[in-house]
Amino acid sequence: MPDADPVIILTRPQMGENIGAAARAMLNFGLTELRLVDPRDGWPNPRAVAMASGAAGRVLDRARVFPTLAEAMEGITYAFATTARGRELTKPIFTPATAAAHARAEMAEGGRVAFIFGPERAGLDNADVARASAILTVPVNPDFPSLNLAQAVLLLGYEWAQDRLPMQPMPAGRRPPGEIPADRVEVERLGDHYESRLDEAGYFFPELKAPSMKQNLRNLWARMPLTRADVQVLHGMLRHLTRAR
Q: What distance in Å separates the CA atoms of residue 114 and residue 214, rounded to the nearest whole number?
């Protein structure tokens, strides 16, 4: 059974903060296997843990450290070297989107894929790129092509996760009340509240027209695209008005 996700390899990373930020970017899109090649400040690194936040336990604690890139590619059948610079090495060149698609196809055939990122200051050298199957380049402003390490990992992670991202920006249970639609029960209770207070105020007059007036009011509430926050505001307004009388 092939592994479900690609491996992220950080080659000679220089700062713990950048390793932590990269781990955080990985977990944003469900990537958890991190391999480190000869990190400058050694490993483990408390600055990486602090920057990783909730990704420390699920990514950094499981990270494996290797002395060389060649050893870090244990079990890898296809590797992308991420670089913004032109190379004299002849290799296929991919964008994050096309690389993610190619990676899925490779892994569907039982392969194991890795994305290799270089050190922050200079990126991957030619010896690193020579060990990769292909080059991955992000199409950016040619006058300023440099990307932060975590930004590059984030872009790749986003493209990889395209077929598994939620359709909504955030699951309903984790969205703020101002973004969650009110359900029919909440709208019904709001209608009950207004109908009761308006009845007390003598609004439904004459009595013969009261049923149709109440029905029209219910229809009005049902047509409105209310959020849970909207419902609470309208309840609060009515409570304040009736207390002020």
A: 64
Q: Which of 97, 77, 92, 89 is nearest to 128 (CA)?
A: 89
Q: What does the alpha-carbon distance between residue 234 and residue 240 come to, in Å, rounded to a whole number?
A: 10
Residue type, 28: N
* Structure tokens belonging to residue 102: 């190619």
Residue 192 token pair:
């009950």
Give the closest residue to 34 by CA, choosing from 1, 67, 58, 3: 58
How far apart, in Å, are the Cα atoms of 218 and each of 188, 191, 194? 8, 6, 10
Q: Do 132 and 72 touch, CB atoms closer than 8 A?
A: no
The average pLDDT across 211-233 equals 91
pTM: 0.69
DSSP secondary structure code for residue 108 in this structure: H
pLDDT tens digits, residue range 151-186? 999 999 999 988 777 665 655 556 666 778 888 999
CA distance 92 to 126: 15
Contact 117, 146 (CB under 8 A): no
Residues constituting the chain: 245
CA distance 12 to 241: 66
- Whole-angstrom distance, CA of residue 221 vs CA of residue 214: 11
Cα–chain-centroid distance for residue 179? 18
Residue of 114, 135, 113, 133 whose CA lies nearest to 124: 135
Mean pLDDT in residue range 201-229: 91
Can you tell me which residue has the tokens 């950094």? 60
